[in-house]
Design brief:
Radius of gyration: 34 Å
Largest sheet: 6 strands, antiparallel
Strand content: 35-45%
Organism: Rhizoctonia solani AG-3 Rhs1AP
Number of strands: 69
Shape: elongated
Protein name: F-box domain-containing protein
Domain F-box: 508-554
Oligomer: single chain
Structural class: mainly beta
């Protein structure tokens, strides 16, 4: 009989009459689950159609892995073979099926994987498998008739059927393995062999690291042995560790690179990825002195996975400097472990551990047999749960709880095992200087079931402890109460087996005895996602949450990607806040405009040659030159839109003369900050060496720091101006790019000459005027930048690469997103250059004609400053703020059009949080380390590519959070291509709003009817027609690693006559169109969502 237990589902395999001894039938039993919200369910696969040696489950992916093995076949190479070497091969088939239906799994491109492994003609083969995301690892162990054990391990990507890596065949007695992470595998080995073939007795845990092949055609490489954890050697020759096996459930969580595109059961909670313990089952061979006899004893070593990972991480640097694996001695890692004699504790071979808990049965000794016992094996037994979680162990040591106690391995004698052999093993792990004596907690419960020890095993998951045993007639176990607040569920199974499951006790606490008002006050500090979980697991708390308007408001914020503001509005009550939030959310879901307002703009002087603008924090600012005072901005008109979020009405004001010639400006309404950039003068730049293409000018700039409300020097700026100079060229028009994060003001200077575009970036503390950091020298093709956090800056640029082919020398461009970090100087120390820590590579086009010619990025609003960069300003009181991680990065890409002087534009949309998570671990790495290169295939997942050549936005302010806005000519309903362009603009202009928020997109997918479209980059085009000419579609969408994540699209026809001079902007409450009509009245068209 075969079995497995995973994700609250028990599966038992059995053979069919007259069809051999291999498994052909599977019976599946799904336990009731509060975590997953599922009921009891049972079903069967009456005949799988193949002979199964073993199987494995991954219920999150509805995955059933079936292992079929042919009989060993001689490989015909007997001569010269050593006695221990395999003399046969065995053909293996691995079937990938749906657990629900038994049919080939829909995600698996190849439903059957095949391989051959070394074997023996007279042998018994066993298998074990583990699934982590896309990776399926199968461990093949062959036990020959002469006692030799041979093993091999292979790792596949089960979704595409490709071999990823393998551990080459080895003869060292290993019986099992486990993933420590999605790139690290642990194999416990009981013995090692010396070069002369003699056996040495020191056991070890080997850690292998593997890498996925760089491309689909690349050959899988063997995993590298990077570290080996040595166990203590036997202090006496009478004892050696002869067998090892390990267990660690559940499997580690996959990283973003190895995740599966499959949505599993929705849950209330998941186990923390680091909160797992590795169980090493040890079998020792003991030789009795005098009579020559021997016996075996069993014990268990428990090791926290987090401790192993930390130790391996520390050894990686040492490993890269040499060819051999790093040996980690027992003295260096013993203190985190716990050793327990489990000779009287029975578990079964698998499923006895979950997270930091393990479970076992302790059979009653003969003196404990009940007087009315019907047979020797019917006794009063104990169910034992060990818990190694340090927090829970500490909690157990601080209070008395019935049935739960803390235990120290050195003093544990609960089972009184008077065996001399046990003392030998105890001395190995507890007798030396380094001891496996970390305390743990023990929960013991007496049970009255009639268990027959040879036919019983016990299993555990996050909600249940389950025991299954065989009887000779159909049995049913009715609900029973053994301890207060413990709930038992009796489950009838078909055939000759029954299972009983214990639901772990409900959490009780004095918290619920507090007054209702205090409980709600405590819950208000709870993350909203946890409030939703409480609603599903506790009726009392659900009632409190449902009755509290404040808590409902917090949940509403979370569901829409918002967080409570740091400076909340205090002029309205929570009832009004909740109502306003629901109205706000409802309006974003509709494609019909409920409120459209037109605001006239100040009339522009016909002779004005400058037009600068910005839109931030609900304020639109338009700059113009003044007659007879040059071409640069001198006048500023400001328009504050009505805002429910800020509780502010419409307001208009102007600065008739700024007093300086302004090249560009930026504002931050939360700080009442207006930043003006003035070019004072330009002087010749000396070039004594006559270097061709060298800058021939030096430009001198002054940055003015003023208030947005009054145009006076800003009170928080110690120095109201900052000066800077930079090289430039005579025949060019420089441009500039700003961003403000707390105290940090970043300014990018963009300089163009005849051959290229270059940029420099400086960061100042605008409150003190001091330099913070800079990025130099010039970067080619870097037209913009964005802060990822107040410690991370992203700069997209083009890397020019030389390429020779057919005797011709060509250059190609390669797009990169370079990420920098910096440290703010202290005192009077000079600013240090930002250092690159990572580079996100964009895919290369197959055709050089489509090489990228320009990159620019936009991500608004700026990241929330941390305490290290925060200003003294509280900001404007608000109803809500955008969640810090709820942003999308827009990367505009320009490539060659059909006409050589023209270019086509497309956009890659990248989840902001994904970029940060990929590099945040590099922040504190030592300086001087090379930047980590992250290839496209490692970060393509979650991105979306769109042909935006027919869409128009403007240069800035077109993105806010996860929403992006643009305007285009919607041709999906046009019958004729001959209509005049002006008519098309008037009749068929569409306002398009992209929404990349995963939660909101998923919500729209679940709705049976919705006004919002779901856009699939692989199949859909935004405006009913593809862009003309060459496209990057093949590069980004049609390859294996595609930027094809769906998103929500709200598209609405508009009636405004747009003409040829307009741009569109967005914030959390408005979509704004600025219509510029020279010589006539210009206007703001404002679509409101609050």
């Amino acid at each position: 009989m075969t079995y497995d237990f995973h994700g609250g589902t028990y599966v038992r395999g059995s053979s069919l009459p007259g069809m051999g001894e291999c498994t052909r039938r599977l019976d599946v039993y799904q336990l009731p689950s509060i975590n997953k919200g599922t009921e009891w369910k049972e079903w069967s696969h009456a005949d799988l159609g193949i002979d199964i040696r073993d199987f494995a489950l991954q219920t999150d992916y509805d995955l059933l892995v079936l292992l079929e093995a042919d009989e060993p076949v001689s490989d015909g190479k007997v001569s010269g073979r050593s006695g221990a070497s395999p003399d046969a091969v065995q053909h293996i088939k691995i079937h990938l099926r749906s657990l629900e239906t038994g049919q080939p799994h829909p995600v698996a491109v190849r439903p059957i994987l095949e391989c051959q492994v070394p074997s023996y003609m007279q042998s018994m083969c066993s298998f074990s498998a583990q699934v982590v995301g896309r990776y399926l690892a199968v461990f093949f162990q062959v036990l020959a008739w002469r006692g030799t054990r041979c093993y091999e391990l292979r790792v596949w990507d089960w979704t595409v059927g490709r071999l990823i890596s393998y551990i080459e065949p080895s003869i060292d007695g290993a019986e099992s393995f486990t993933f420590l992470s999605d790139r690290l595998i642990l194999v416990p080995c009981p013995v090692t062999f010396a070069s002369d073939g003699k056996l040495t007795h020191q056991a070890h845990l080997d850690i292998y690291k593997f890498d996925e092949p760089s491309s689909g055609d690349a050959t899988a490489q063997p995993a590298c042995l990077v570290a080996s954890f040595c166990l203590p050697g036997a202090t006496e020759t009478q004892t050696i560790i002869s067998r090892f096996s390990c267990r660690c459930d559940p499997a580690p969580s996959p990283s973003a690179q190895t995740a599966v595109p499959y949505v599993g059961h929705p849950r209330i909670y998941d186990i923390a990825s680091e909160n797992r313990v590795l169980c090493i089952a040890i079998e020792a061979l003991n030789f009795r002195a005098g009579n020559g006899g021997r016996s075996r004893t069993k014990s268990m070593l428990y090791i926290p996975c987090m401790g192993l990972l930390s130790a391996v991480k520390d050894s990686f640097d040492e490993y890269t400097q040499g060819d051999s694996a790093v040996a980690i001695l027992w003295n260096d890692w013993a203190e985190m472990t716990s050793w327990i004699d489990v000779g009287q504790v029975y578990t079964g071979n698998q499923c006895y551990v979950y997270g930091q808990r393990t479970v076992g049965l302790v059979y009653a000794r003969s003196e404990d047999i009940a007087d009315d016992a019907e047979e020797e094996t019917t006794r009063i037994h104990s169910l034992v749960i060990f818990d190694f979680d340090p927090v829970r162990v500490k909690r157990a040591s601080q209070r008395t709880r019935p049935g739960v106690r803390t235990s120290n391995p050195e003093t544990e004698n609960a089972w009184d095992i008077p065996m001399e052999e046990t003392k030998l093993m105890r001395n190995m792990f507890l007798g030396g200087e380094s001891k496996a004596n970390t305390p743990f907690s023990v929960r013991t419960t007496l049970i009255n079931e009639r268990f027959h020890s040879p036919y019983c095993y016990v299993m555990i998951d996050e909600e249940h402890v389950s025991s299954l045993h065989h009887s000779y007639q159909l049995s049913y176990h009715s609900p029973t109460t053994l301890l207060p607040r413990n709930q038992y569920i009796g489950l009838t199974l078909t055939g000759y087996t029954f299972i009983w499951a214990i639901k772990l006790p409900k959490m009780t606490s004095l918290l619920l005895d507090l007054p209702k008002e205090i409980i709600i006050c405590i819950l208000a500090w709870t993350p909203p996602q946890d409030l939703l979980k409480w609603c599903q697991v506790c009726r009392l708390l659900k009632g409190f949450i449902g009755e509290s308007v404040e808590l409902q408001y917090l949940i509403e914020l979370y569901s829409f990607g918002y967080v409570p503001p740091s400076n909340p509005r205090r002029d309205i009550l929570y009832h009004d806040k909740l109502r306003l939030m629901k109205e706000h959310q409802k309006r974003w879901k509709s494609t019909s405009w409920t409120q459209v307002d037109t605001y006239p703009l100040k009339k522009r002087n016909p002779s004005s040659t400058s037009s600068t603008y910005d839109f931030y924090g609900g304020v639109y600012a338009q700059g113009y030159s003044l007659p007879g005072m040059g071409e640069h901005t001198r006048r500023l008109d400001l328009y504050r839109l009505p805002s429910v979020n800020r509780g502010t009405p419409w307001k208009q004001w102007s600065f008739e003369d700024l007093g300086v010639d302004v090249r560009d400006f930026v504002m931050q309404p939360d700080y009442d900050l207006l930043v003006l950039l003035e070019l004072n003068k330009s002087l010749p730049c000396p070039n004594p060496d006559g270097i061709e293409g060298a800058p021939d000018l030096i430009q001198y700039f002054t940055i003015h720091l003023r208030t947005l409300g009054t145009n006076q020097p800003h009170p928080d700026a110690t120095r109201p101006t900052i000066t800077y100079n930079t090289p430039s060229y005579r025949r060019n028009r420089p441009s500039f790019y700003f961003q403000i994060v707390g105290r940090y003001l970043a300014l990018q200077f963009l300089i163009s000459n005849a051959s290229s575009e270059r940029s420099k970036l400086r960061v100042w503390d605008w409150t003190t005027g001091k330099d913070v950091t800079y990025i130099e020298p010039w970067r080619t093709g870097a037209e913009s930048f964005t802060f990822l956090s107040d410690r991370l800056i992203l700069v997209p640029y083009l890397q020019v690469m030389s390429q020779s082919e057919g005797g011709l020398h060509n250059t190609r461009t390669h797009g990169k997103l370079m990420v920098y970090t910096f440290t703010e100087p202290t005192g009077n120390n000079p600013a240090q250059e930002a250092r690159p820590i990572a580079s996100f590579d964009l895919p290369n086009a197959a055709n050089p004609f489509l090489d990228l010619q320009g990159l620019s990025c936009r991500c608004d609003p700026a990241p929330v400053p941390s305490s290290r960069s925060a200003t003294r300003h509280d900001g404007i009181p608000k109803l809500f703020d955008l969640a810090p991680e709820n942003r999308v990065l827009c990367l505009k890409m320009r490539s060659q059009a059909v006409i050589p002087v023209d270019q086509v534009e497309s956009t890659l949309y990248i989840q902001f949080a994904g970029l940060v998570q990929a590099v945040v671990h590099l922040l504190d790495q030592p300086t001087g380390q090379p930047a980590l290169t992250i290839p496209w295939e490692d970060w393509a997942k979650g991105t979306s590519w769109v042909d935006t050549d027919l869409l128009f936005t403007g240069n800035e302010c077109y993105v806010f959070g996860q929403r992006v806005v643009s305007v285009g000519l919607d041709r999906s309903d046009i019958d004729s291509d001959m209509e005049e362009i002006d008519t098309l603009i008037r009749r068929f202009s569409s306002l398009c709003i992209f929404d990349f928020d995963p939660i909101r997109v998923k919500r729209e997918l679940l709705l049976s009817e919705s006004e919002i479209e779901i856009f699939d980059p692989k199949k859909d085009c935004v405006l009913g027609v593809w862009g003309e000419g060459p496209s990057l579609r093949n590069t980004f969408v049609e390859r294996e690693h595609a930027a094809d994540t769906p998103f929500a699209l709200r598209k609405t026809l508009i009636n405004e006559r747009l003409g040829h001079h307009y741009y569109v902007m967005v914030d959390e409450e408005h979509v704004v169109m600025a219509l510029q009509r020279f010589g006539r009245e210009s206007s703001l068209i404002v679509y409101s969502f609050s």
